[in-house]
Amino acid sequence: MVNFYHRFIPHATWLLLQLHCALQKSHSQKVLSWTADMDMAFAFCKEALAEATMLSQPKHGAHISLTTDASDQAIRDVLEQWIYTSPHHGHRGPLQHPYDGPFQVVAPSDKTFRIMAGDREEIISVDRLKPVHVDLTSPVPVA
């Protein structure tokens, strides 16, 4: 939990210094020597987490939900507030404008396009599509 909420805990690096030093690779050993300083740092971190539970001010009149979780060791409750998200963030438009070239697109799909070239249909694969210049002054060749 501290890894996630450390940005909301003032002076978190100072509080976690003793625990961090004990877990460094240079001190890696099979048995961890727990000291009184580590015990005090752990207690300070628990207290700081308990005080950092309210991360923002609630809005009056907004819908709320109560999420609970219980196990043999602990019980957890979280009061969450539903917020409105703008519809502009949920839907993004296409990066390119729709095709408006000289050919009529009959059926677009993910990897192919069926177009009308002259009086017949052609299937163009998008994987093999290369940019080309179309001369509209001459008639479309149908071969």
From TrEMBL:
TM regions (residue ranges): none
Keywords: Signal
This protein's record includes keyword Signal: yes
Signal peptide: 1-28
Coiled coil: none
Domain (Reverse transcriptase/retrotransposon-derived protein RNase H-like) ranges: 34-82
Protein name per UniProt: Transposon ty3-g Gag-Pol polyprotein
Species in which this protein is naturally found: Plakobranchus ocellatus
Lineage: Eukaryota, Metazoa, Spiralia, Lophotrochozoa, Mollusca
